[in-house]
Write a structure and sequence with these properties.
The structure holds two protein chains of two kinds. Chain A is an all-beta fold. Chain A is built from no helices and eleven strands. In chain A, strand 5 and strand 6 form a beta hairpin. The radius of gyration of chain A is 14 Å and the shape is globular. Classes of the chains: A mainly beta, B mainly beta. The interface between A and B is medium-sized, with 22 and 21 residues.
Chain lengths: 116, 113
């Protein structure tokens, strides 16, 4: 398995531009998570999906952020308009919840976003 | 919601010595406590986890202990090696299936050769 795949690895954009981050979870995983990592705030959960349905988006910082999961193999996190304070590493993670219990999160390699 | 505090934020130990990282949590309902290791520029990866029905778990040089009464858990790395240098994150969740993991702020561990 190729693991969780994120693209792009790096994104540099100007303030005000729209940014779209992409994620392909591990095949068969029914949970998908978007995390943001910064030096100041560490790893923060933004939103998570179960079977393509958003379950909890309470971590989404504001209306400029939106996430979708149109099918089991693809999710996007969009920031519009972007601001310098959005600069961070964004991780996508997935897990298999079908067996019950606590199966581990599998993280992607992250997208390093820089907004100038 | 859950609040996880992690100490120390940085830790340097001589190669071969032991390292201990401690975390406390606030929600007494938390029942799952994983530890993740993140090497520089890479993704976090699970190294060990413990559930609330056990007090200790060991995997080779790594062990985790849990004190539910005091609401704290610790990571112990023995016989440290240079490849143990990384940032370590603890996490906790009161939700079955760890849907909402709350992470600690991380400990940067440096092994001095």
């Amino acid at each position: 398995d190729a693991g969780v795949i994120q693209s792009p690895r790096h994104e540099v954009t100007e303030m005000g531009q729209e940014v779209t981050l992409r994620c392909k979870p591990i095949s068969g995983h029914d949970y998908l998570f978007w995390y943001r990592q910064t030096m100041m705030r560490g790893l923060e959960l933004l939103i998570y999906f179960n079977n393509n349905v958003p379950i909890d988006d309470s971590g989404m910082p504001e209306d400029r952020f939106s996430a979708k999961m149109p099918n089991a193999s693809f999710s996007t996190l969009k920031i519009q308009p972007s601001e310098p304070r959005d600069s961070a590493v964004y991780f996508c993670a997935s897990r298999d919840g079908t067996g019950g219990g606590n199966s581990p999160l599998h993280f992607g390699n992250g997208t390093r976003l820089t907004v100038t | 919601g859950e609040n996880v505090e992690q100490h120390p934020s940085t830790l340097s130990v001589q190669e071969g010595d032991s390292a201990v990282i401690k975390c406390t949590y606030s929600d007494s309902a938390s029942n799952y406590f994983p530890w993740y290791k993140q090497e520089l520029g890479k993704r976090p990866q699970l190294i060990i986890d413990i559930r609330s029905n056990v007090g200790e778990k060991k995997d080779q040089r790594i062990a985790v202990t849990l004190n539910k009464t005091a609401k704290h858990f610790s990571l112990h790395i023995t016989e440290t090696q240079p490849e143990d240098s990384a940032v370590y994150f603890c996490a906790a969740t009161p939700h079955f299936g760890n849907e909402k993991l709350t992470f600690g702020t991380g400990t940067r561990l440096t092994i001095i050769p």
